[in-house]
Every structure is written in C-alpha cells, then in structure tokens.
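Recall the central idea of this unit: under ordinary conditions, the amino acid sequence of a chain determines the structure it adopts. In this exercise we apply that idea directly, starting from the sequence alone.
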Amino acid sequence: MSKIVVIGAGQAGSSLVAKLRTLGHDGSITLIGAESAPPYQRPPLSKKYLLGEMELERLYLRPESFYADQGIDLRLGATVTGIDRDAREVILGDERLPYDQLALTTGSAPRRLPAAIGGDLAGVFTVRDLADVDAMEPMVRAGAHVLIVGGGYIGLEAAAVAASRGLKVTLVEMSDRILQRVAAPETSDFFRKLHGNHGVDIREGVGLDRLLGDGKVSGARLSDGSELAVDFVIVGVGITPETALAEAAGLALDNGIAADAQGRTSDPAIWTAGDCASFPHGAGRLRLESVPNAIDMAECVAENMLGAGKDYVPQPWFWSDQYDVKLQIAGLSTGFDRIVTRHDDGDAVSFWYFKGDQLLAVDAMNAPRAYMVGKRLIDNGKTADPAAIADPATELKTLLKP
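Accordingly, the structure predicted from this sequence is:
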C-alpha cells in the first residue's frame, strides 16, 4: 500500500492528512511535527489565547484521538534532519522513514532581531507558537511597559491584547505608516485612530536602533535618538517560509518552496502546501500567509496526491481581531490605484480597492455584509460601480445581480 509522509504538523499538514482519509486513502499516513502539542490554531495565539479567553485544548484543530482513530501516525516533538530523495526516505536522527509520496507543510518562521542589537536578550519575544506565548504570558501584567516592534497585523493584534490587559504600550514602525505593506492609507488611518483611543503610543517612521539591558532587556534606543525603559519586547516584523529541508534536498525554491499549479515540487514524488509554498499566479508566482490558504491548498494537494490532477485556484481572504473591531479582507490589493469608502450602520466602514474599473479587494471593519458581497464579486471575477458602493443607500446585495 502507498506510504504518505507529511512533514509539518500545522494547519496545512493537519488538513492534508484529514483530507486524504476522507478521500479514501487506505495506505499508511505519517504526520511529523516538531512541537510537542498536536496540530493547533495559530491566529488565536496573539488574540484570545494571550488574553486568557481560550484554553489550550480549544486551540487544537482536532482532538488528539482523531489521528489514532484515523490510523494516522502522529509523530510529535520529532526533528526531521534530512530527505533522501533517491531512496525516498525521510531521515529522523537514526531512523529512516520510507515514503511513496511526501508533502512538505513546514510553514513559516518569524523574523527575529539580530543579536547585535540585543535580539538575543531575555524578555524579547515573537508570537508564532505556543512556546512563544506561554513564555511571554507571565510578563503580560497591568502596568508593565511593552515595546512592540513592527506595525503589521501581528504587532497591532499584540498591542490590542496588551492595552486591553492594562499594559503601557509603545509600538514603533520604521515605515511611514502602520500596515504600509499590506493596506491602503485609509485602513492605516482607521487602526491608528483605534489604537490611539485605547492609549497605544504609535510611532511611525521610527525604527529600533538597539535594545538595552544586561542579559535581560530593560530599555530600547530608537532611531530618532529617544530611549525607553521597557519590561519586555514583542517583535512582529514578518515571517519567512521554512525552506531549509527543501533546500538541503535540492528542491527548487522561489519565494518559498516552488510548486506547480497542482502543488507538486520539482521532485514529482514531493508536494507542498501552506505558508512555505509558492505557486503560479497570473504572470508570476504567489505565496499566501493565511489559514484559509493553508487549508484550501492542502486539501487540493491531497486530492492531487491521489490522482485528481486539479489546479489550485486561490480565493484569498484574511481576518484580524483588534479590541471590538473585526477586520475581514477579501482579495489581493496589489496594484490598486483607487480606494472607494463605504460607511454603513454604526461604526461599520469598508474600503474597496480598484485598479481602473476592476475590483481587487475589500477591507471591511465591522461590516460583514460588505465583506461577503465584496468576496463574492472578487471570487467570481466581477466588479461593481464605485458610485453605488460609496452610496450608503445602495443595498449591497443588489451589486451581486447580473
């Protein structure tokens, strides 16, 4: 019987093995994870879990018993040291695990501050896995001063949690504005005001010169020459795809592990999905860092491992929770040249990204109807009249009519 091995026990890996069983694969399946916990959700780490509103077991994607019940060999706390492509074996220390097909769902890793500027001091954290948040949690106490480096969604979510728990929060973003890489100025303005209303000190166009402290961080010197006394630091300056195993095995890389339209790498026996994988998109390649992409691509790859021959067509969507605001994003805004703003009931607002007459993306803040309509339009390759979108008298569902 066919042996399938999956390296990486995150959202993509868990989704892939579950889909294989759903599709009727009756051969052996082994899922290998470096962490000791079974596959779990990562987005709540910087939200409800850090707030103390979600217990550990609720993070799990599936009960731990699911894997045994489905005949899936779940190897936790295991480090893969290599892939022997000629022998079709995964190397785990002294053990060699044979495979007929292999999937790499190795995810991504947070960028860390260089040791030369104090990045290795105690009290400097990233928000990527359970160990990060569990180590940080004792520091998250009312009255403590936290410095957050990076004004992307991870940094802003961490700022919201810290402010909600009564900490003094300073956030520095070296770009001209928060969210500059991923959102329009209108969205940046919205979240700058939101955080300001909750007492967060956001400093844009200001970078970190170095962290200060003897063994443990106690302060920071910023690029404008100012110094802060801080109790701990959260670093949110992006992530990089985990490609070391693939590179060592000689697989092609291109902004991640390079896959074809079906998720197959440069080795026909090896597949990839999730944060670590890039795939053809338009005239170039795309790598998406999101839970929906991890699930959808992994399930598509599972089908293709069993012979479906199906191209992966992404339908990007994302979300972020900050205070009492739920941000929902549909589409990809790259290349936009115009923003249309729509105000709905209460504090609901949405920003619609256009390139010429084509709708590219929607950022919806507490505006689920705007998000759902925008997503349906984008997924179906349709657009809408900008004037109608901006008019609060327009019933959004009418935009979906042929």
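The mean pLDDT is 96.
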